[in-house]
Amino acid sequence: MQAIKVTEKIYWVGAIDWNVRDFHGYSTNKGTTYNAFLILDDKITLIDTVKKEFYQEMLSRIKSVIDPKKVDIIISNHAELDHSGSLKMAIADMAPEHVYASVMGTANLKAHLGDDLPVEAIANGGSIDLGGDSLTFIESRMLHWPDSMICLLKKENVLFCNDIFGMHYASCKRFDDEVCEKDWIYEAKKYYANIILPYSKIVTAFLGQVTKLGIKPSIICPDHGPIWRKDPSKIINLYAEFAAQKNKNKVLVIYDTMWGSTEKMAASVTDGLIAAGVEVKQMSLHAVHRSDAATELLDSAGLVLGSPVLNQELYPSLGDLITYFKGLKKQNLVGAAFGSYGWSDGALNELETIMKEKLNIEIAAPCVKSRFVPTEDKLKECFELGLAVGKKVLEKNK
Questions:
Q1: Theoretical Cys-Cys bridge with 124: which of 40, 139, 181, 338, CB 3.0 to 4.6 Å?
Q2: Three-state secondary structure of the chain
Q3: Among this protein's residues, is 120 annotated catalytic?
Q4: pTM here?
Q5: Which residue of the set 8, 24, 120, 376 is catalytic?
Q6: Is 78 designated active site?
Q7: Is 168 a catalytic residue?
């Protein structure tokens, strides 16, 4: 395995995970990378490690550049095991002089890997002299763990930012200008929507802090996905846009169905939304993963949910979606509920209540409920529901 040169002093020595398809509930259908970086200076420094199953891949890439025992310093920017899982093995093989993490990172690494881990805390704003260059550390708490931090290689002006500005995207290419821009924009959006979205206010504050400190990196090195070298401002600007949650005139209609009745209702809701003049995405949970629905939710202004009733409860896939969306804390949504039932419609009343109280959705029209197969009159009610939601979206987005 060969290291990839980033600059004359920096090498990518990470690993490519072509086969991972789930990342704590997030569908990673394009795999991912676990990026680690080697800095060649008077003090040779390794920035982050990789998931433990990929340690030998990382080690072989380091060996293509130097003897691993020459590594003097290891930096752990984040304690999550896809970046720290092989840290203990790296320490054993490399015997570095120092292993550094944030104050919270030190505690979390020991909680994961054992109290005997020889890791030292470095303060927010602290720096380390590497000889020819230096690293400055800035805490990025809750982006997306309390222990997260970034570090800037000052003279090279290269930012190592761990999970922020990253994405789950496996490729044989390492740099943004080598991969399809349309692909990486979508995967960056998906990553933000499924991992960073709950912390959007923190993102805005963090980007303000970076600007205030005058940090304008020439290269950004995240721990997942491509390295930003062509125009690093693009990913920074995307994050600012995502964090602002400025919604498009767009509504999601997400539903599941048992015998096709709720699906018929969904089609009429969609027709009403189209008639109102908004963009619509109709998504069946038979066909769409929750994380792809979350990606579309990121820039949506409306959410309409439809469910059949099963054993006097919401359909299980809707329960799964609601739990997932609740954690993402999407703001500024309007919407409505609809569905079909046989014996009792109580679960559909519950759906509307959940949307108001748990997902903070402004309800634009009363829930439409059909007993068994919807009649033409019920389908007309669904159309009117879609029309009402669409008009409300346009009114709010004036």
A1: 139
A2: CCCEECCCCEEECCEEECCCCEECCEECCCCEEECCEEECCCCCEEECCCCHHHHHHHHHHHHCCCCHHHCCEEEECCCCHHHHCCHHHHHHHHCCCEEEECHHHHHHHHHHHCCCCCCEECCCCCEEECCCCEEEEEECCCCCCCCCEEEEECCCCEEEEECCCCCCCCCCCCEHHHCCHHHHHHHHHHHHHHHHHHHHHHHHHHHHHHHHCCCCCCEEEECCCCEECCCCHHHHHHHHHHHHCCCCCEEEEEECCCCCHHHHHHHHHHHHHHHHCCEEEEEECCCCCHHHHHHHHCCCCEEEEEEEEECCEECHHHHHHHHHHHHHCCCCEEEEEEEEECCCCHHHHHHHHHHHHCCCEEECCCCEEEECCCCHHHHHHHHHHHHHHHHHHHHHCC
A3: no
A4: 0.95
A5: 24
A6: yes
A7: no
